[in-house]
Specification:
α1 packs across α2. The protein has about 325 residues and is an alpha/beta fold. The chain has 11 helices and 12 strands. It starts with 5 loop residues before the first helix and ends in a 12-residue tail after the last strand. It folds into 3 domains: about 40 residues, no CATH class; about 130 residues, Response regulator (Rossmann fold, 3-Layer(aba) Sandwich), CATH 3.40.50.2300; about 130 residues, Rossmann fold, CATH 3.40.50.2300. The longest helix is centred in the C-terminal third of the chain and has 17 residues. β3, α6 and β4 form a beta-alpha-beta unit.
Length: about 325
Amino acid sequence: MKKVSLETIAKQLGISVVTVHKALKNQQGVGPELRSKILALADQLGYVRHIAAPNRSYIHIIRKDFLISMDERYYTTIYYYLNCECTNAEAKLFFVVHDVLSATMANVKNLMQETQIDGIFLSGQMDKEFLAEIEKLKIPIVCIDFYSSDYKFNYVYIDNYYAGYTLTKYLIQHGHRHLGFVGDIKFSNAVADRYFGCLRALNKFNIPDAVFHINANIERAPDSFELDRENLPTAFICHCDRAASILYEKLKKLGLSIPNDVSIISFDNTEICDILSPKLTSLGIDKTVFASQAFRLMEMALQNKTSKINYIKLNLSLYERESVKQLTENR
């Protein structure tokens, strides 16, 4: 379908492009009758326009511990592209880091007093106390990379259970039968879902589900675990790329080669994957998609006059690099 431009609308009505622009942006200088004609024709022709009017303002909140690694930049990348979406729609986006509940809420409420805040974006899983306080604000909330049936928010998320299943199946198809999983399943729903998705795949392919589990987020505590060189799986699934980079260091200190001795695969597909040697195979999504779909959800929430909740589940892609070996025989 051919993209409808401002010039197309202006030509059909015999008016200037500036007049069309003002009408679509709800600016002064266009009479109500002409404005109605412009909007009606725009809708008839299928013109795609943001409902966000100039001077709309949003808040984007990220947990402090999600910003721990400057070389990973997962949520900060999403923030960057989300800010681009807002800029294109002539809206403002304020950035708030969540650490202490009282301080975060004071920051949010101060922003809401200083300016009209139309909605809030939350990136990653937040604690229950914080979500309960945010819910009280009674404005549209869009959760990015997080889902919970307990809160009437809007969600753009990935299926982490299926993601864990997908990576495990990939390793099984490469001949691996003795697998390890790295990640604290109590840390977040995402890590737990990936782990149980792994177990589901082992069960599906009739492989004993005794996973070598390092139940810790090693990217936050690199010294929290030790490895026995003589008792290792043929492949590890790491809950994030940063954890995989720590595992790389541990294995290399033991004199082991990746992937000749141990294969590693991960989630998120961040910049770390191409920095590591060998380059890391990882399952992830283009962060621009998270941002654009989150902004789309916010627009839907602002349009919606009822309490309807909107969901968008995104599809992941596997980025194959050099960290997984095809086994001809299994240990």
